[in-house]
């Protein structure tokens, strides 16, 4: 029994070391080779939010919530970004580290864990800086009125949903290039149907019911309720968002686990 425990502990330590090494490699290859490094991770969401603010600011007097167009679009864009970036980053974990899987000490799960942690930290960094920049722009602190528990958990659920879909896609992309192309096409409208630039509550039936089948729409409403104290998201169903995230995570782990040996043998 003691020897089994010792073997298990050593195995866990080995995976922790592999994951940490992969994290360092991911950060170096993803940001280290680009001018400005992490600055580019911030420029993209800020540019999207600023563009939406300018466009909608010219055709509307005020946003659907509050008085700041930038804050309104940020509260829609950041949760979607947390999901999208996690999904795409995790989905490429095994493919990007294919050569390292030739070493027995590196498992496919290590590459996923490394990318999840790196992307989670990056998302938190982006959210904090975007909200900070909006505070400077609006000359008032956004952080003062935040419900931090709601903001944190909604972003975490978005990333958990993205992790589950990303792990499932690792297995499915490896088995079907056609599915990869179809997935890319089908998910492109997410920006338009998730409630980034409108309130889901304002959509008339039956279209609202269809839109609310999208768990990201609920996550965005949840996130916004943590930023705007006056916002009453009557269509928000937190339990539905949680169920979708946990089901996606469970199915992702299942597909990924059963495909582990295939992923090691797959050729680029």
From TrEMBL:
Domain ABC transmembrane type-2 intervals: 36-259
Family annotation (Pfam families): ABC2_membrane
Annotated membrane topology: Multi-pass membrane protein
The keyword Transmembrane appears for this protein: yes
Predominant localisation class: membrane
Superkingdom classification of source: Bacteria
Sequence intervals crossing the membrane: 37-59, 71-96, 116-136, 148-170, 182-200, 240-258
Subcellular location: Cell inner membrane
InterPro entries the record matches: ABC2_TM, ABC2_TM_bact-type, ABC_2_transport
Sorted UniProt keywords: Cell inner membrane, Cell membrane, Membrane, Plasmid, Transmembrane, Transmembrane helix, Transport
Family classification: Belongs to the ABC-2 integral membrane protein family.
Descriptive protein name: Transport permease protein
Organism: Ensifer adhaerens (Sinorhizobium morelense)
Lineage: Bacteria, Pseudomonadati, Pseudomonadota, Alphaproteobacteria, Hyphomicrobiales
